[in-house]
Amino acid sequence: METPTLLNLYRDMWLIRAFEQGLEREFEKGNVPGMLHTGLGQEATQAALAWHLEATDTFFPDHRCHGINALAQQRHGGDGERIMAELFGKATGVCSGKGGSLHSADPAVGNFGDNAVEGSYMATVLGVALAAKMRGRPRVACAIIGDGTVGRGEFHESLNMAAIWDLPVLYACINNGYAISMPVGEGHASADIVDMVQGYGFGSKQVDGNDIVEAWTAVGSAVEHIRSGAGPYFLEFKTWRWQGIFAGEFRPEAEVKYWKEERDPIMLAAEALGERGVDQAELDAIEQEARDVIEEWIEFALESPAPDPGKATADVYVGWEVSSR
Amino acid sequence: MTAAETAATKPARTARTPRKPRDRVRKASFTQALNNALDLAMERHAEMFLIGEDIAEMGGDFGVTKGLLAKYGPERVRDTPLSEAAIIGTCAGAAMVGMRPVAEIMFADFIAECYDQVVNNVAKLHYMFDGQFKAPLVIRTACGGGFGGGPHHSQSVEGWFLNVPGIVIVAPSNPVEAKGLLLGSIDSDDPVLFLEHKALYRSRAEVPPEYYTTPLGKASIARQGSDVTVVAAMRMVPMALEAAARAEAEGVSVEVVDLRTIRPYDAATVLASASKTGRVVVANEAPRIGGLGAELSARISEECFSELRGPVVRVDGLDTPIPFSVPLEDIVLPGTDDIAAAIKTAAQY
Fold this sequence. Notes:
heterodimer; A: 325 residues; alpha/beta; Rossmann fold; 12 helices; globular; B: 349 residues; 2 domains; seven-stranded mixed β-sheet; 14 strands; 36% helix; disordered N terminus
């Protein structure tokens, strides 16, 4: 990887981290309704995926994917702040505030939205991929899932059908070790998801999800494989989420310390850039720039109006109006 | 689904009567009308495909997709493994990028396997993503009892979806409208659950050969009358018509409203008929509690209270699963006699 590319990815990772930290702050202040699931600690996988997916590709983000949503929105739409506004439930959000954190979508940038019944889009992704194949277009349809989703029936239905139909699907499994509180090895037949994927007979690879170079390289190869018409591919990113559970931290102190202090993907990337001769001042400037951008987005979200009341009954059907009370 | 199960859905043949000379216009069955609708729609809509279990070579468990594989090929007539959630997910994803898929879920009971896909994804994606996506897909499925299919091959599932905004439920009662409503459903940009009552598959009528649509969301007056209104759908419609004919012999004039679309239903037509006659029967094969009959009864009582001469009379299935044994099934499911009795009750008000 060239140093300028690594610097850009470093910038992307900081944008994700600043986004999530800013969001946590605003959530605690009561400015963000609903629930909050952050992608802190998983910045490398999201930056790697966002880098390689074009606006004409499709991705189904999971509930910790504010970062990839924001990067896609910024890169392909030039309006990343609309992801922030969506999370605040505002009229300027990508879904006019009707979707929120768990249902932010903008097809113009390839974002087909999360389905908060985790993994249900494992089935939906098949249809997007099938349409691309029937139309002869070299598109990638990507489902970003967590390790918990592996327990869903749709996970297996999807892998099976993608295999028999040779569909252009990229499965990106962000294995952060826990499905809420259930450790991956207790919830599944294997703690290594790729082991369970073997039987479906298509390409798969396990990568270090906290190593941006390794993650970026693996996504690039998988996307190339799929675009060439070679069928589905499964990537498992081994990583760890910083956020505990609703009640707080439940994981052993040593584990928390290890992942936050020794395996922080941004810190690892900074070390790699340092070894390439990039000085600390430049890295600090990148961080500050990301934090400034996010503060602007938060300001935008806070100042944006609530959705028009008419939105409450709009778009239930295409062919019928739903009357208000 | 096995061949034995298929056979079980067909009534045993009784002694043959001598064939009459063939009618000048050959009547088509409900099944053939649906098959013809799919054929015409596949010709018209390049973005349409069919997907389901055993629908290609086998032509579907009830023969509705027969011959379409040979005409349109395996890309557009797709057999799947037993993966109902993946079938509906595939339809949803394809519809989100402008395709127009038509799925077959072999028996409506199996929709429980893809209930999440229908309720949380298909029905909501237009709304929750602020109109950025549409879901122009059709889910065809065989519903209803009366043939000894037992608890998992006989249910009427419209009630499972009545409380789900965003889904359209279409429920034809005869071959002519089955074709028109299926073409209307395929043309629609909303997701449609298309219910095919198994007892109607063999009903026959003169079905126009051309491409025509019957409007969704509009009920029809299947029979005009002035004393009692019966609101019904699917197999309850021919039963209501039979009961109406019996009532006429006793001097009671019965109007039969065929809902045709169960959600969103045509309240204007229902309420106008209820107001006109002042006596209403709602007939519904599914269990009583929380079903279509409950909704219609509540709505009519609420909006036509001053015109009603007495309470709305409900005819429903009993509040049980559907037993296998035919004599028991006859007890559980409503029939023509039940509707006739309800008409008598209503007529006394």
